[in-house]
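Work Package 4 report. The design task specified in the project plan requires that, given a folded chain encoded as structure tokens, an amino acid be chosen for each position. We show below one input record used in the internal validation round.
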């Protein structure tokens, strides 16, 4: 999955993820990039929605810009990579999305393809984790 994604929070958004709170003024976002604040769903029994920075900054990182490079974990190596290993058990969250972009190289330039759920539907980005 690429690092850029979209979110169009309609009324169905809160129903889909069964969150106990609402965020005032949550607007559609069409090109979410690492380092931007996005709504994240955390499990604090019940689920709650909070704003967090998109990216993962490992506890050992000396520069928070490393969070731009740690958004694309592979399930096959998740337990082996130091950046993810300790978070897998207890620091998970849901990053809701309406769609995301994958890029293809063409002769002239890179071309984005938009992969999305049905209109008005959402899906959680897989294996999302938070640091901190």
């Amino acid at each position: 999955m690429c690092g850029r994604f979209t979110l169009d929070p309609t009324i169905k958004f809160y129903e889909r993820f069964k969150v106990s709170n609402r965020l005032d003024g949550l607007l559609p976002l069409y090109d979410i990039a690492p380092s931007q604040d996005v709504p994240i769903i955390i499990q604090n029994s019940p689920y709650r929605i909070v704003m967090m920075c998109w990216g993962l900054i490992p506890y050992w990182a000396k520069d928070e810009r490393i969070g731009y490079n740690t958004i694309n974990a592979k399930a096959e190596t998740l337990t082996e990579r130091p950046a993810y290993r300790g978070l897998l058990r207890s620091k998970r969250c849901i990053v809701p999305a309406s769609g995301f972009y994958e890029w293809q190289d063409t002769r002239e330039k890179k071309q984005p393809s938009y992969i999305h759920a049905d209109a008005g539907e959402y899906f959680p980005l897989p294996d999302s984790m938070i640091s901190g």
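The beta strands are 5-7, 29-32, 37-43, 47-53, 95-97, 99-105, 110-116, 123-125. Validation will be extended to a larger panel in the next phase.
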